[in-house]
Amino acid sequence: MISRRLVRIKAMQTYYSFLQGNENLPVSKVWNELERSINKSYELYIYLHCLLIAVFDFAAERVEINRKKLIPTHENLNPNTKFIDNKIIDTFRSNPVINKYMSNNDYNWQEYSQFINNLWILITNSEYYSKFMASDIISVKEDYNIIENIILKTISQNDELDDFLEEKSIYWNDDVEFMLSNILQSIKKLNDKNIGQFHLLPVFKNEDDENFAKVLIKKTALNKNKFDDIIINTLQKWELERVAFTDRVILHLALCEFTEMPNMPVKVTINEYLEIAKYYSTEKSSIFINGILDKIYVKLREENNFNKSGLGLVDV
Length: 316
Description:
- The chain is mainly α.
- The chain folds into 2 domains: 4-197, no CATH class; 223-313, NusB-like (N-utilizing Substance Protein B Homolog, Chain A, Orthogonal Bundle).
- The protein is built from 15 helices and no strands.
């Protein structure tokens, strides 16, 4: 579930902290910090499921409140329950992991009832909600469509949500779009026949991805002095102090993939860190990093110090 792009971003943040003041930390502790950061991202994945449940629960409460009015209307007594009868949300509620989080006040959104109310107003005033409620079609596909619209057109564009998430974790705002995408991915193929097979995505897609995270942070921390030397030799007339700190961090991680990951294609490594640099570093960082990595790549090949095999040989 945690993509390699997100692993690289989390590794960059963890390694940045390590170089800034925690260089005496044992390598095992550095991995523990990265693992903790990744697990926090997974908590956000669960937390967003809880948010969806909270929205649908709020809608159900509105229905009950209207039914109990002193002078209820015909519509109050005979409400359209298509929205609150969402079968996918029911599977969320019955999932043991989500259910455990919902029992914790830190995750069930009860303290943010006004935010849920504001979200509900946005949803009910939307065109997609009106069309959904007016349709006579009842199916898991319809249930997915309304959730998809809520996520893409209301939740993902909500600035107020960003403020709440930042209170929980300073890194969550970077993760929210990716986690919302994962929620949609996990429910997109559900239908009336397989609705009971819903399951949360695991933290890592497979063992290879978990090993990638471990090797990346551990080997980078172990070889930081070696990577600094490589950068200095490549800079020629420049001093290391002139390199932006974030660029140095990114270069170290890229060099780890160059030298410690035989099966990782060079172009993949370069492209991934250039994209990260565009978002997290200075305006010209991606150009600088691209130039340095190209020079290092050429030099390593000339010196036969390029440790690549299998898929890693694609670009060599």
